[in-house]
Amino acid sequence: MDVLVIGTGGREHALVRALAADPGVGAVHAAPGNPGIASSATLHELDPMDGATVAALAVELGVGLVVIGPEAPLVAGVADAVRAAGVPAFGPTAEAARLEGSKAFAKDVMSAAGVPTAEARVCTTYDEAAAALDVFGAPYVVKDDGLAAGKGVVVTPDRQLALNHAKACDRVVIEEFLDGPEVSLFAVTDGTTVHPLLPAQDFKRIRDGDQGANTGGMGAYAPLTWAPDGLVDEVLRTVLQPTVDELARRGTPFSGLLYAGLALTSRGLRVVEFNARFGDPETQVLMALLDSPLSPLLLGAATGTLADVSPPVWKPGAAVTVVMASAGYPESSSSGDQIVGTETLGRDSAVHVIHAGTALVEGRLVTAGGRVLAVTAVGHDVADARAQAYEGVAMISFPGAQWRRDIAAGR
Ligand code: AMP
Ligand code: GLY
Q1: Is residue 371 part of a domain?
Q2: Does 202 sit in the ligand 2 pocket, CB within 6 Å?
């Protein structure tokens, strides 16, 4: 089976690498892709938001599966367009992708399904927002209702800042602050059967010590040796399965990747957010640790046959990924800065480079976005993987590069 992967980021590069290593996969195609993806897949130019074009390319290539990486095309119905053309698509319908596309919708589903999450109010006016802030108190949590690439959430002790963010958005969700460590647990589902992957941890803030602005994610590691026993079973039972069942009950089943962003609070686990796609950069570490083929899981989810597919198998040891971002990220990003050193890290070694915002200009690799690349390493434990990932980071440079020094430190 040939596969087409839609997207340009690190997540898509990690998925493409895993598919290229899968004996059940023939050719891997990617659109639009990036220079890193080009080493494992044939690239095609297209607008990933244009469902008709994506479907036409899938038909023309004769692929047996289309994997849609990012949230924006999913929310725009690109998976629906691919399925309408008769090609299996990994990724939810536009309806079901609202789980990520609207925080208010996600709250409604969780409430109906009895899934534990922060108490919240949906506000559309300044006065409603002000009242909601006072109900929950500081620290204040204000979320843009729509898609915002991980940057629509403000968590602050400053009431005025919280109000300013609410004012800047049409519709916000204001909610209680959740304490405790965050965990990302992904599950592959066909709308009925749910196969959880390994819990991972992502580092969302731009600076060491979880300081500074929220980003898409500056690094990740797995497994979480400190996590309580039975965490995956508990999340499956109290979060993943009830959510999948509720969406099926509503007649809008969710298939694809259900991403549960969780907080392990002093009062028990709570959902911070759902996403409707693989997380980035957690996918980098999960794909580095996956020891069974990826395509049966994705195809099983896409075709409603996941019950016949064995759960994934994981390598022993651990993986760590460290994101190198361009100058100005996350407020802005720099492009065109020459990247050196990536060629010294072998494609198949324990340490590898996952490309995100990179481009080839006249044969030179340059930056082309906020999160530029991620150095990913597998080791016998988290400390070993971390040491190797940072050795890789030390070999790569570009003007203005920013990376956190504390990814997976002490884990
Ligand atoms: P979200 O886009 O909903 O994942 O939010 C981005 C980040 O903001 C999360 O990963 C958390 O670090 C933080 N955050 C979101 N909601 C809350 C909350 N209720 N309490 C504390 N932190 C939160
Ligand atoms: N790592 C956070 C995200 O993918 O949304």
Answers
A1: yes
A2: yes
Q: What pLDDT is recorded for position 151?
A: 64
Domain match, 286 and 199 both: yes
Give pLDDT, residue 348. Answer: 55
Clarify whether residues 203 and 245 are in a common domain: yes
- Let me know whether 288 and 191 are in one domain: yes
**Sign of the C-alpha dihedral, residues 132, 99, 168, 333?**
positive
**Which pLDDT belongs to residue 377?**
97
**Ligand number, closest to the Cα atom of 103:** 1
State the Rg of the chain over Cα.
20
Ligand 1: atom nearest CA of 118 is: 19
Question: What spacing in Å lies between the alpha carbon of 220 and ligand 2's midpoint?
Answer: 10
Among candidates 11, 4, 3, which has minimal Cα distance to 355? 11
Where among 42, 66, 90 does a domain terminate?
Answer: 90
Last residue of a domain, which of 273, 308, 343?
A: 308
Question: With a 6 A CB cut-off, is 273 part of the ligand 2 pocket?
Answer: no
Residues of the chain with pLDDT under 70: 149-151, 346-349
Nearest ligand 2 atom to the CA of 277 is 4
Q: Give domain status of residue 221, yes or no.
A: yes
Q: In this structure, are 18 and 82 located in the same domain? A: yes
Per-residue pLDDT, 393 = 97
What pTM did the predictor assign? 0.94
Q: CB of 195 within 8 A of CB of 189?
A: yes
Q: Are 403 and 323 in contact (CB under 8 A)?
A: yes
Name the closest ligand to CA 148. Answer: 1
List Cβ neighbours of 185 (8 Å cut-off, separation of 6 or more).
196, 197, 199, 200, 231, 232, 235, 239, 240, 259, 260, 262
Nearest alpha carbon, ligand 1 atom 7: 153
Rounded distance between C-alpha atoms, residue 297 and residue 312, angstroms: 8
pLDDT, residue 1, reads 97
63 lies in which domain range? 3-90
Tokens 């440079």 label which residue? Answer: 397
**Rounded Cα distance, 338 and 84, in Å:** 42
- CATH number, domain of 53, equals 3.40.50.20
Is residue 275 domain-shared with residue 208, that is, in the same domain? Answer: yes
272 alpha carbon – ligand 1 mean position (Å): 6
Judge if 329 and 244 occupy the same domain.
no
275 lines ligand 2 (CB under 6 A): yes
DSSP secondary structure letters along 367-383: EESSEEEEEEEEESSHH
Q: Quick check: CB of 215 below 6 Å from ligand 2?
A: no
Pair 303, 351 in one domain? no
